[in-house]
Specification:
By secondary structure, this protein is an alpha/beta fold. It is built from 12 helices and 8 strands. It has an 8-stranded mixed sheet with strand order 3-2-1-4-5-6-7-8, sandwiched between helices. Helix 6 links the parallel strand 7 and strand 8. Helix 3 packs parallel to helix 4 and helix 9 crosses helix 12.
Length: 299
């Protein structure tokens, strides 16, 4: 199988290494500015890194797109222009769902299959064995490649390109938010001399499934917003006293303040379950959207 990887950063390089070690794949790479690690690997492996996509890509069976999401629109055009009908594009970028849908439509018009793959974990830790989400029609060539690499794949049933990245970006709201909070809290914990103790008291998170914890937080968020707002304000003050600006923690406090105000104004959810809280939060979002739209019309 002739396989080209567009982009030779951390993701592209780890996939190039894995597939190049598999006898059924002939690998090509393309990157206008390959990192030093990719250039070194290219020299050692004998796999060239071509600077631009052109006629050389015509006979490729599969193309893995491993570039930053913002670059996808610039890459999709040349790929569709030069690939033969029947080829498959596997989009592993974090481009917006609409950008993926537009690229998939462009490919479809040229008879090229398009699969949206979302990487849902840390490639630095797990390489090609990082869990993936697959959105799009079943594609035997893509499925064979993913199987050859040993990648764990979860298929989104009835999905189209753009669906996988939608899930990934929602996951990123939570996971990148946690990362930012850890960056804010851990240095302060070390300065107070309680870093190990903090890690110990965080271990309760490991006692139950993470999603159950998140659902519990959402279910209890409205009813406990006033108390939690006061607690987060004190947390922010403690960070500030240690000389670590509580930028994100301040925003968290503001979120609780908004919830507390909405609780007072509306009376809160109809019940105390997760679904009750979700319905109430939905109604607030719709109300805010409607108010914003009215203000825009009046302006």
């Amino acid at each position: 199988m002739k396989t080209t990887i567009i982009g030779s950063g951390q993701v592209g390089l780890c996939w190039a290494e894995a597939l190049n070690a598999h006898s059924s794949h002939t690998i090509s790479l393309s990157d206008p500015q390959p990192p030093a690690a990719a250039s070194s690997w290219s020299a050692n492996s004998g796999v060239p890194i071509r600077p631009v996509v052109s006629e050389w890509i015509t006979d490729q069976d599969i193309v893995l797109v491993c570039v930053p999401g913002s670059v996808l629109p610039l890459v999709a055009g040349p790929l569709v222009q030069h690939l033969n009908a029947g080829a498959t594009i596997i989009d592993m970028t974090t481009a917006a769902a609409q950008a993926k849908r537009e690229a998939a439509a462009l490919a479809s018009a040229a008879g090229i299959d398009y699969v949206d793959i979302a990487i849902t974990g840390a490639v630095a830790l797990n390489g090609v064995r990082t869990p993936l989400l697959y959105a799009g029609q079943p594609n035997p060539a893509a499925e064979e490649l993913l199987r050859d690499a040993g990648a764990p794949v979860r298929v989104l049933p009835g999905s189209t390109p753009g669906d996988a990245v939608t899930v990934k970006l929602l996951r990123s709201v939570i996971m990148k938010g946690l990362e930012a909070l850890a960056v804010e809290a851990f240095p302060a914990a070390r300065s107070y001399g309680v870093f190990d103790q903090l890690c110990t008291v965080l271990s309760d998170v490991d006692q139950a499934p993470f999603t159950d914890l998140l659902k519990s937080m959402v279910a209890t968020h409205p009813g406990h917003s006033v108390r939690r707002h006061a607690e987060v304000l004190e947390s922010a003050a403690q960070l500030d006293r240690a000389g670590y600006p509580a930028e994100l923690t301040g925003h968290v406090a503001a979120k609780y303040a908004v919830t507390a105000d909405n609780l007072k104004a509306t009376g809160g959810p109809s019940g105390s379950t997760f679904e009750d809280s979700m319905d109430w939060l939905d109604s607030l979002a719709q109300s805010t959207t409607a108010t914003t739209s009215t203000q825009e019309v009046l302006a």
